[in-house]
Amino acid sequence: MSIITRIRNNSWIIVVMVGLGMGGFLLMDAINSRTGIFGHSDTIGEIDGREVSRQEFTNLQDELFKNQNQMSRFEQTNSLWEYLVQTTLMHNAAERMGLGIGKTELEDLMTGMNMSPAVQRVFSNPQTGQLYQEFGQFAQLYKTNKKDIGKYFKIDVKGLEDQAISGAMTQKLIACVQKSIYTPKWMLEMEQQRTQPIDFKFVPVPFASVKDAEVPVTDAELGDYIKAHSKLYTNEEETRTIGFAMLAVAPSSTDSAAARTKIDAHAAGLHAAADIKADSIYFADNYGAYNGMFFKKEQLPPSLKDTAFKMPVRSVIGPYIENDKFRLAKITFRQTLVDSVRSRHILIPVKEGMDDKSAKAKVDSLKSVVESGTVPFDSLARKFGTDATKDKGGDLGFTAYGGMVRPFNDLIFLKAEIGKFYTVKTQFGWHLVQVNERRGSS
After folding, report:
1. Residue 265 burial (10 A CB sphere; 0-12, 13-18, 19+)
2. Sign of the CA dihedral 27, 31, 34, 38?
């Protein structure tokens, strides 16, 4: 009894010891370098020996699904993980088989006729499937000076190459598997027609290993077989089997000389054009491109950006080669412009049932009212505006050059004075416009 009494009298010692023991277990878990509350693990999973980091997964998810708002984040995560499992297993299997992608083949995947779907997603219009014009500049830089791509495109070239390689390796592996599998037709027919399990043993014999001379087939045998299996050769719709080969077409020296002679003649024609109007007519008559817009140095392709800002106005640049074509350019005008303009407007669209004159008359009347000072511009915009800017008093904020449709852009950047009111017609209707502020110049 004395021992039990002593334990009862000193029970606080037992409580303290139990508490220290539990605290020790918690502390050991807390300081664990990978799973504890003071530790950190960036790895979210492992696929066939490959660790997938959280940063890699997040970056890839943002890149692949940046324009796909129809999928939830949860759906994107599941889809991406399945994609990583498939591509990793495929890639590892391909490496073990000795499959690979060479330098020339990779360049073809990135810029050639066998372009990777990953590259097409970046440089093609998702509605039409046509490549953007910027792809020509990307292809030229990729072939000549890959490190400069980052100056003109916000693209992870290494990541894009990895996607192209992964897709090509997958296709090669699938092709190898498909070509290595052979199932005799009689076996398929037996499998389809069998009504009860049958045990049998077989050895596959590659079709190519049997010489034609060892198994002669007569025309009569072929005719009998076709008659007995006529349903297999009957199609409700007419079909064709087409074989084709892609041949790279390169110009001969004669072709290049003829093209050079033709472009030299166009250079003479451009030199002879006396003014901007003559320039535009010459370009239009000879399938050129002339839009009358101003371009900053950084907006021009590498082959033009330095030369165009050194040569005098009315100079013809070229012929020069860009994207495997002879090209010409002419400097029609040079001017220092503001970098951005803040403006506001009131839009009166030319709606069905309202002719152009009525819309113009309404804009002119609003211009007279605001110029008289009787009603503030923002009050008129809130009452008569028809677009989303009406709730902000017509304020369009700051706009860079080229950010508006052509007539509106030319007015606020080239013609309008700060504070004055102007009317202009665009494809959206008639606008009452006021320029409030200009910033920078270049």
Report:
1. exposed
2. positive
How do beta strands 325-330 and 340-348 pair? unpaired
- Distances, alpha carbon 48 to alpha carbons 43, 51, 161, 175, 418, in Å: 14, 8, 22, 22, 66
CA distance 116 to 16: 68
161-172 average pLDDT score: 83
Contact 389, 397 (CB under 8 A): no
Which residue's structure tokens are 């009494």?
5
Q: Classify 321 as helix, strand or coil.
A: strand
pLDDT tens-digit series, residues 321-364: 888 889 999 998 888 899 999 999 999 998 765 678 888 999 99
DSSP state string for 20-86 = HHHHHHHHHHHT-TTTSTT----EEEEETTEEEEHHHHHHHHHHHSTT-TTS-HHHHHHHHHHHHHH
Integer Cα distance of 304 and 248 in angstroms: 29
Confidence of residue 33 (pLDDT cuts 50, 70, 90): very low
Name residues whose C-beta falls within 8 Å of residue 288's C-beta, 6 or more positions apart in sequence. 282, 328
* CA of residue 194 relative to chain centroid, distance: 51
Q: What is the DSSP string of 235-265?
A: -SS---------------HHHHHHHHHHHHH
Q: Are 368 and 358 in contact (CB under 8 A)?
A: no
Cα gap 329→303, rounded to integer Å: 11
Residue 170 near residue 85 (C-beta atoms within 8 A): no
Look at the block and give the residue holding tokens 């024609």. Answer: 269
Burial of 348 (0-12, 13-18, 19+ CB in 10 A): buried
Average pLDDT score over the chain: 82
Which residues neighbour 135 within 8 Å (Cβ) at sequence distance 6 or greater?
123, 124
What are 252's two structure tokens?
């001969």
The pair of three-digit structure tokens given for residue 207, joined into one six-digit string:
């079709």
Q: Measured at the alpha carbon of residue 337, what is the angle toward residues 335 and 338, in degrees to the nearest 5? A: 170
Is the Cβ–Cβ distance between 279 and 330 less than 8 Å? yes
Rg (CA), the chain: 37
Lowest mean pLDDT among 174-188, 227-241, 272-286: 174-188
The angle subtended at Cα 382 by Cα 379 and Cα 388, nearest 5°, is 145
Half-sphere exposure of 235 (CA within 13 A, CB side): 5
